[in-house]
UniProtKB/TrEMBL annotation:
The keyword Glycosyltransferase applies. The keyword Mitochondrion does not apply. This is Purine nucleoside phosphorylase. Its EC number is 2.4.2.1. Belongs to the PNP/MTAP phosphorylase family. It comes from Zhouia amylolytica AD3. Keywords: Glycosyltransferase, Transferase.
Length: 271
């Protein structure tokens, strides 16, 4: 990854009016409506931003949006990137480095995921307490990584303790049932087999998805406090596995979205 590319991307966004955002937000599948909360939005389409990847998934919009939520300056990724689209881990995490260079001090991440822990139900929100990387690579495994931070990034507490506590407190006050668990990230895009669900349960995962972990690794590399919430959109019960459609995943995510928006809005107020 070239530092001059990163600088050119950041300069383009600053010239568009992306002025010292405080919080970066990555929106997952079916979770795009948070952008309706943004006051005075400035929109940069990914295909206009120098060196930015393009979102190729039909239900992921491709926009970076700057504005204010709860009187805080935010920059929101409406549409993220995945390895299964043919990108590498440096592409997938490039926007996190861009938002950090723009000035964000906190990062919020959301995603849609499948339940492995059968105590989780469709539509539940799960605060990610820890994760397992099964993507087969690292976004820090490139020459020159030490220009951007410590090569051997510490991952003993990848999700910020204070923001996790704040989210749990907000959920309690707002009467939102916020579960907590371990998220495993896999390559995809195919969904899991029965045997794979059994394996993921054995290794300690509560929910599975195809994103988030690369962004969180890079946030930790940049000493950027991060918090993440999954919406449970389908159930990976190997003894009763049903085919799942992407349409259904998007629909369930949409139903859970208002609670996710309330959580993030209240968390923004506290930063």
């Amino acid at each position: 990854m070239a530092l001059d590319h990163l600088n050119e991307t950041v300069d383009y966004l600053i010239n568009k009016g992306f002025d010292n955002p405080e919080i970066g937000i990555v929106l997952g599948s079916g979770l795009g409506k948070l952008v309706n909360e943004i006051s005075n939005p400035i929109v940069a389409h990914y295909n206009h931003i120098p060196f930015f990847p393009l979102a190729t998934v039909e239900f992921h919009s491709g926009k970076l949006i700057y504005g204010t939520i709860e009187n805080k300056k935010v920059v929101v990724m409406q549409g993220r990137f995945h390895l299964y689209e043919g990108y590498d881990l440096i592409d997938v995490t490039y926007p996190i480095r861009v938002m950090h260079q723009l000035g964000i001090k906190k990062l919020f991440v959301s995603n849609a995921s499948g339940a492995i822990n059968l105590d989780l139900k469709k539509g539940d929100l799960m605060l990610i307490d820890d994760h397992i990387n099964m993507l087969g690579g690292s976004p820090l495994a490139f020459k020159g990584v030490s220009q951007f931070g410590e090569r051997f990034a510490d991952m003993s507490e990848p999700y910020d303790l204070k923001m996790k506590e704040q989210l749990q407190s907000i959920a309690e006050k707002q009467d939102i049932d916020l579960k907590k668990g371990v998220y495993v990230s896999v390559l995809g895009p195919q969904l899991e087999t029965k045997a794979e669900y059994r394996m993921l349960k054995i290794i300690g995962a509560d929910a599975v998805g195809m994103s988030t972990v690369p962004e969180v690794i890079v946030a930790n590399h940049l000493n950027l406090p991060v918090v993440a919430v999954s919406v449970i959109t389908d159930i990976g019960d190997p003894d009763n596995l049903k085919p799942v459609s992407i349409d259904e995943i998007i629909q369930v995510a949409g139903q859970a979205e208002p609670d996710m928006i309330r959580l993030f809005n209240e968390l923004i107020k506290l930063q």
